[in-house]
Write a structure and sequence with these properties.
By secondary structure, this protein is α/β, with parallel strands linked by helices. The chain is built from 12 helices and 12 strands. The strands form 2 sheets. The protein has a 7-stranded parallel sheet with strand order 8-7-9-6-10-11-12. The protein has a 5-stranded parallel sheet with strand order 2-1-3-4-5, covered by helices on one side. α3 links the parallel β3 and β4.
Length: 334
């Protein structure tokens, strides 16, 4: 059974040949809807976008993705230029709201055949700008934040196999907790389970945007991306390479253009035994630039100064004054 929240398009929505358990009409704050439908089971919620107060402010639509499962939402958009702008539609996709349309007849189809990310990827602007859109007046503040006083989302990808993203995210979370409100999320795997830390979160690519938005108090979110296509939700992505000979040769045999694709990316060597000279040789041979070099670390230790140094290099400056540091053991790698 489905729910309909209508306003401007009430009459059109009333003609839908679908099972409806509850229908309400008017303008609502998202919080009002959340209160009305708390503990209320439904299949899909069809929302006339004009029923959301201040719907042209994308931040009000963002609240939908926080209070409801985005996969259960179907938005009927109005014909305004702002709501149909590339930036607005891209924001919907970033929030995990994939089911939206201006065609009343498409709603029944979306109930039975919900969109996946692949179906709406063309609306998703990965560069964060739409110069051709008329978005003047659009109040836009994506939940991904700006990294300067707002939420900072840092993703981690293994470039060579088993380069250590999961364990590194876990260790970085422990270091950041000294000075920041931090959350760690892994995508499409459940390896966090083996770290015996119930604060670690596991999710899927489809639900990643929802899980990010569902941490309103977080200052930092660390994401172990694995093979997820949702790296665009991150402010920064760290590309991890374990610089062993076998690992590197496997990488190049698999994709000879691997380092060309990493140009201008933040490359971090992890589980590394390279010296400064070795790093210079590595950069020259791969035609790349290493952002940071992290040696083999003991994940059972409470504190590793090298990780504080790495986080400060990423811009987490509070760690400089947190008083958590011990004697620096790996200055050679700074």
């Amino acid at each position: 059974m489905n729910v309909i929240v209508s306003n401007k398009y009430q009459n059109m929505l009333a003609t839908l040949d679908i099972d409806v358990i509850k229908s309400i009409n008017g303008e609502f704050e998202v919080e009002e809807l959340a209160n009305i439908f708390t503990n209320f089971y439904f299949n899909k919620m069809i929302i006339d976008v004009t029923a959301i107060k201040g719907y042209q402010n994308i931040k009000n639509i963002q609240k939908l993705s926080v209070n409801f499962d985005p996969s259960k939402l179907i938005l009927l958009l109005d014909d305004s230029a702002m709501v149909n702008s590339g930036r607005y539609l891209s924001s919907l996709v970033s929030m995990g709201i994939y089911n939206f349309t201006r065609n009343i007849n498409a709603i029944k189809f979306l109930i039975d055949n919900p969109n996946s990310y692949k179906d709406v990827a063309q609306y998703h602007n990965l560069n964060g700008n739409n110069e051709d859109d008329d978005t003047s007046g659009l109040e836009y503040d994506s939940f991904t934040g700006t990294g300067s006083g707002g939420l900072r989302i840092v993703g981690f990808r293994n470039v060579t196999s088993h380069a250590g993203a999961t364990t590194l995210v876990y260790m970085l979370k422990k270091h950041l907790e000294v000075a920041y409100n931090v959350v760690a999320i892994e995508v499409d795997k459940e390896d966090f389970l083996y770290l015996n830390d119930k604060s670690l979160k596991s999710t899927t690519t489809l639900d990643l945007a929802f899980n990010i938005a569902n941490n309103p108090d977080a200052e930092v979110i660390l994401v172990d991306l694995n093979d997820s296509t949702q790296g665009n939700l991150c402010n920064d992505i760290i590309y991890l390479i374990e610089p062993g000979l076998i690992k590197l040769n496997k990488l190049i045999r698999k994709d000879r253009a691997a380092f060309e694709k990493l140009k201008d990316k933040k490359i971090v060597l992890n589980k590394s035994v390279l010296t400064n000279k070795d790093i210079n040789d590595f950069e020259n041979e791969s035609n790349s630039k290493v952002f940071f070099n992290i040696p083999y670390l003991d994940d059972k230790k409470e504190h590793e100064q090298i990780l504080d140094d790495f986080l400060v290099a990423l811009g987490f400056s509070r760690l400089n004054s947190s008083g958590s540091g011990k004697a620096k053991l790996f200055n050679i790698f700074k």
